[in-house]
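Collaborator request log, item 7. Partner lab (contact: R.S.) asked for a structural prediction of Lipoprotein to inform their binding assays.
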Amino acid sequence: MKFITPLAAITAALTSIACAQVTQIEIAARYEGIDPGIVEGASKDEPANLAMPRITVKSGKIATVHVNGEYIFPIGDESHEASAGASIKITAAYKDGKCTISGMSLLRKPDVLESKESLSPKSFVSFETFFSGTVSANTEIPIELGQAVPGTLFLKLTPLDANGKPAS
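Returned to partner:
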């Protein structure tokens, strides 16, 4: 009698069930070495670090996180708001032990204008970085933001089961 085939079939079936149970992905993100003008209250003398809140999203759905500071500008009798800070927008899907991701990072800061105009213009500078690919789950991924803006975005994607526990 051969018991190897049924055992292999049971193992394959259990493996399929375990993989199918991944329904969510936890996304952890942080920026290191970014322009201090982006992080409210950061020392202006050295690059800043910024941790984003961890979020959980259904596999294949879009997740967006904003960490912003609000700026209020009086213009005439009205006040206008503008935000500066960091945002990430990510779509992540889990299959066969890998995470497929695509997304963008947006960093926005007020621009310092030495204006002699009576209108006192206010400007903001934005830096967008787009990324996509397939990465290993549970591994921190560095994403260089580019030459125009210093710094690195680090992402870590953790597959979760239906109960919100890390999938094995």
